[in-house]
Amino acid sequence: MLELRPNCECCDKDLPADSTSAFICSFECTFCTDCAQGVLAGRCPNCGGNFVPRPIRPARLLEKYPPSTTRKVKPEGCTRAA
User: Fold this and answer.
1) How far is it, in rounded angstroms, from Cα 51 to Cα 38?
2) CA distance 39 to 62
3) pLDDT tens for residues 43-75?
4) What number does CATH give the domain 1-66?
5) What angle do CA 73, 74, 75 make, to 5 degrees?
6) For residues 52 and 59, what is the distance between their CA atoms, to the nearest angstrom?
7) Distance, CA of 3 to CA of 11 (rounded, Å)
8) What pLDDT is stored for residue 82 in this prediction?
9) CA 17, 19, 24: angle at the middle one, nearest 5?
10) pTM (2 decimals)?
């Protein structure tokens, strides 16, 4: 089950569970559209994998399967993966 992390790891922008601006890699690292397509150029800075749009969990299932509330932010900011 996806965690649906609440924010961008680069800029800390809020990414609610129903956001269409959230992108994830296969390890669920989460980034906003601006960071994923901009500074990161489509590659995860943690694993080097590509990004896909994060799926939106149906609203009727959010109570039973709530999104994560744990925020992860890279204190050094983000740079392109090598």
Assistant:
1) 12
2) 31
3) 999 999 999 999 999 999 999 999 999 999 998
4) 3.30.40
5) 100
6) 21
7) 19
8) 59
9) 80
10) 0.91
